[in-house]
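Can't paste images in this forum, so I'm doing it all in text. The chain is below; anyone willing to post the predicted structure tokens underneath?
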Amino acid sequence: MASSFAQTGRKIVAIGRNYAKHAKELGNAVPDKPFFFLKPTSSFVLSGGNVEIPKGVIVHHEVELGVVIGKRGRDISATNADEYVAGYALGIDMTARNVQDAAKKKALPWTTAKGFDTFTPISDFIPKSSIADPSNLQLWLKVCISSIQVGVLESDALIIWTVLD
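Text version of the structure:
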């Protein structure tokens, strides 16, 4: 059942460099097509849970709108993608930036930098019917009362690819 995604989900599929401004801040090229990376479901920590940051790790955070897929599919067109969306969740994509930078320098995958236990704090399930337009949401992230990220997804050009792309 989609509402229990945090317990029953099999994988977290994420889109890398989907925030143009963030990609530029890090000196990365803005990609011309989406690229994907995986996070283990063991990185989920439910709302109200404790995030554990390993010693020596420099952490960066990004607020994300997670899309909960409600049925199996493959090679789904953008036109039909909405039929597969069961709902959403707010999440924080945490990155061990120093671990990622070291992996990138060696041309190694950076899954470790994204996949530490508790590196994906996640909200409860939000039914699809609760969000009229997932590209027109204001999301923000505060860490220790400092604003880290604020904006409306599509209208502030925060994201490159929308939910249905």
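The beta strands are 12-16, 35-39, 44-46, 59-69, 85-96, 120-122, 126-127, 138-143, 146-152. The first strand starts at residue 12 and ends at 16.
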